[in-house]
């Protein structure tokens, strides 16, 4: 039984972490919300010391009505949706394969997981130059060798190229989690179904997929949160051109490149709300597991 | 019971799995190969690249021209510094939550995790402004603090799950035998907690090493770790395939090795226990 004494000691021990995270969350967040209601153009002499003009919801309205907004929503949806589709479909297939008996399973697993540990700037730059460069890249050489004209990947097929790069980075994560789920699959249940005459597709749809559904949901939610804030991959490849300006990148440009802090902050608030909607679902699953 | 599998089936699995594994690993393999080629050979057709002469010179040139070791040192300092600092803050918190749980423990834990979901770009300008005001822009100290804060929820979470696996009866037994709180932590808890703490440290070093939002936006020449240094190769003037490859290999090799040891922790640390 915890005593009164140990309770107050526990509170004291939690205090630094709680205070730090509270500060980390509240201070910048309230500043962003504050800026989002202000006209704040540091390059044109606006500064906090001189006071900032209150503009109400102007920034919020202008962020949404700007010509860059809908294309950025579209780019975000294609990038996030594309990567989710690729990583989850291939992840399920790969996890199923890795769960089968084979020689050198450990080594294969290491090969498959490796891309996750490559830093984003390295993987984006390597894909951009060593593979997708229209003159000297690996793909260009392959295309020429079969007599085809090399594709300018990052300008002609910019979003699919980014989906490929980011999927390569995140496929290991999806695979590893789905593999964990596969390993807790009840083999006897599968065998029983097989003996009852269920064919492979039926076994997959009615036994395997339901078993995986929670792992898939978790991969979906966690990846969505991380993918919504993809930055480095765009920063070193297209810098947001050729239709790759996602919501995150648009906000970054508004805030740091064109230094329209008020407008960018309004965008930031939208991004925070969006991420929180996804986070609520994830937290619900995590919370349920905590009770179990 | 394990299913009986024919040798033929197993051979087929092996062939397919190895083919796919090598395909996924191929870009990394290609970087490694390219890093040992001369610039002239590196832009040739793939088969010619393979048959051309091997050289170590890129590794020397990268270091000489760009002060590579400085950025490497920055990465080491940021990754280890932020993890150590995070551990100092997180161990007491996780200990308290695991061993003296109250009604609010679960809410606090979930709230901590939720701070991890805050999109960085949403608070970019405030942090940028604070860094300017405090003179922390392009400083290693500032980044150590930011990296510590963004990974703190994961550190607390992982430690909590590991600590909870330590049976409470052992602590009670130690208490009965007259151990005070300090002794309890030092002689009973620590030895049992070390494996979990080691995994936590490993995963967080990896995450901090590869972090590429704050490191890109809050550093310039001085405090830039490898993530930002490599990004400087994206300008066309600095573009050399073989040297880019050599710099990349040096940047990812240490973490690749650590990563292979942390496969299990990865699932635990990044899914917040939602998948078991």
- What is the CATH architecture descriptor of the largest domain in chain B? Orthogonal Bundle
CATH class of chain A: Mainly Alpha
User: How many discrete domains of chain A?
Assistant: 1
* Class from helix and strand fractions of chain B: mainly alpha
Here the CATH topology of chain A equals MetI-like fold
What structural class do helix, strand and pairing data of chain A support?
A: mainly alpha
* Contiguous uncertain segments of 5+ residues of chain B: none
Look at the structure and give the CATH class of the largest domain in chain B.
Mainly Alpha
Total beta strands of chain A: 2
Helical stretch tally of chain A: 13
The biggest beta sheet of chain A reads: 2 strands, antiparallel
Q: Spans of chain A with pLDDT under 50 lasting ≥5 residues?
A: none
Shape call of chain B: globular
Percent strand of chain B equals under 5%
- The span between the termini of chain A is 21 Å
Largest interface: A-B, 110 and 98 residues
C-alpha Rg of chain A, in Å?
24 Å
Quickly count the helices of chain B: 14
Second rung of CATH, namely the architecture of chain A = Orthogonal Bundle
Walkthrough of the structure:
Chain B: It is found in: Cell membrane. Chain B: The chain crosses the membrane at residues 12-33, 72-96, 108-131, 143-163, 184-209, 240-261. Chain B: InterPro entries: BP-dep_ABC_trans_perm, MetI-like, MetI-like_sf. Chain B: Keywords: Cell membrane, Membrane, Transmembrane, Transmembrane helix, Transport. Chain B: Pfam families: BPD_transp_1 (PF00528). The complex is a heterodimer of chains A (292) and B (276). With 292 residues, chain A is mainly α. Chain A has one domain: Orthogonal Bundle (MetI-like fold). Chain A contains 13 helices and 2 strands. Chain A has helices spanning 4-36, 58-65, 69-98, 105-113, 120-131, 138-145, 153-156, 158-183, 187-195, 200-228, 232-237, 247-257, 261-291; strands spanning 38-39, 53-54. The radius of gyration of chain A is 24 Å and the shape is globular. Chain A starts with a helix and ends with a helix. The model of chain A has no long low-confidence stretch (mean pLDDT 89). The two termini of chain B are 21 Å apart. Chain B has helices at residues 7-35, 39-42, 46-51, 57-66, 68-99, 105-115, 124-133, 140-164, 168-176, 181-210, 214-217, 226-231, 241-261, 263-271. Chain B has 2 domains: 2-57, no CATH class; 58-270, MetI-like fold (Orthogonal Bundle). In chain B, helix 6 (105-115) runs antiparallel to helix 8 (140-164). Chain B has 276 residues and is mainly α. Helix content of chain B is 75%, strand content 0%. Classes of the chains: A mainly alpha (292), B mainly alpha (276). At the A-B interface, helix 1, helix 3, helix 4, helix 5 and helix 6 of A face helix 1, helix 5, helix 6, helix 7 and helix 8 of B.
